[in-house]
Amino acid sequence: MKETAFTQIHRRLNGKMVEFAGFAMPVQYSGITEEHQRVRTTVGVFDVSHMGEVEIHGKDALAFVQRITINDAARLTEGRVQYSAMCYDDGGVVDDLLVYHMGTRYMLVINAANTAKDIAWMKSQSAGDMQIVDVSDATSLPAVQGPRSLDTLNKLTPLNLESLQYYHFVRGAIAGTTAVISRTGYTGELGFEIYVESDRATGELLWEAIMEAGKPFGIGPTGLGARDTLRLEMGFCLYGHDIDQTTNPIEAGLGWITKVDKGSFIGRDPIVAMLQSGSRRKLVGFVSPDRLVPRQGYPIVGGGKQVGAVTSGTFSPSLQQSIGMGYVETASAKPGISLGVRVRDKEVPVSVVSLPFLKK
After folding, report:
1. pTM summary value
2. 85 touches 266 (CB < 8 A)
3. How far is CA 259 from each of CA 81, 168, 206, 315, rounded to the nearest angstrom?
4. Does residue 111 share a domain with residue 46?
5. CA-based torsion, 204, 207, 211, 213: positive or negative
6. Residues 188 and 313 placed together within one structural domain of the fold
């Protein structure tokens, strides 16, 4: 398994290590619930260095990004970030991603499990004066998330992070190393991502500096388990669960990032067709008074028949109830509708709710 610049730190902290996307990654340290609540109330640190980073260089870089993504990258100016997705010709999702306007190039941040597949697909679509450069292995990425994340990082950098707007980034020094610091987040809380050169010695010094700066606020390391419960409370999609190659962005609730008026892009025609005809299913959120956790693939039933299936589920530490997302027939997708989820030999009552589950 691959290791990140912080792997030895995770092991020293007795992180429970698992294989994820080919990397040895910590799923938890002190416990998912404790780590989750720390991020909601104060500040936690994630290692998300396993994510993929791909730079697009050349005169035709923007044209290429416009063609392979569904959002309008032409609206970006240097220092801004955009949430987007890439689609196949049939409208199915290749991956969801972030697009960074870096001035002379663009950086695409893609899901760890999809890195090889995404890059191969990008290369198959390349045209014109542009180059695709995989910088994933050369990039480390700690993420500092939570209400006290700004107070923590302000001790380590002269950069004015307080004025950094959502989905923007700055470049500069932090804890003695040069970094790109962005504010996108995957938790619903104030937070920052720190892109630095992947070097173990530099990475460990940065990690320790962050932990020391956050000590007065009760900072702690946070694993992939809490990252999942935090994102699910916010209703954020996870590739391989809530979106995949069988999913059209419209039925997944991603119409807000789908800019069909920008011109031609891969997958546009089937997306426009679904916008015009309407989708037969929709991704919804649901809650249950039962503590049984709905898992991916569990049937969703209504009116005596199966109307859909669960894509993600957990017991919410913040809300103290079971929550989940899944695709259901459009007629069953309205908030307030009562349905059921078959959990093993039991049918658990659920109610459709509007997303996000946790209103911020």
Report:
1. 0.97
2. no
3. 16, 20, 39, 35
4. no
5. positive
6. no
Residue pair 213/155 in contact (Cβ under 8 Å)? The answer is yes
Domain of 95, in residue numbers: 52-134
239 in any annotated domain: no
User: What's the number of domains the chain is made of?
Assistant: 3
Q: What is the pLDDT along the chain (360 residues), one digit of tens a residue?
A: 999 999 999 999 999 999 999 999 999 999 999 999 999 999 999 999 999 999 999 999 999 999 999 999 999 999 999 999 999 999 999 999 999 999 999 999 999 999 999 999 999 999 999 999 999 999 999 999 999 999 999 999 999 999 999 999 999 999 999 999 999 989 999 999 999 999 999 999 999 999 999 999 999 999 999 999 999 999 999 999 999 999 999 999 999 999 999 999 999 999 999 999 999 999 999 999 989 899 999 999 999 999 999 999 999 999 999 999 999 999 999 999 999 999 988 999 999 999 999 998
What sign does the CA torsion over 92, 226, 154, 147 have?
positive
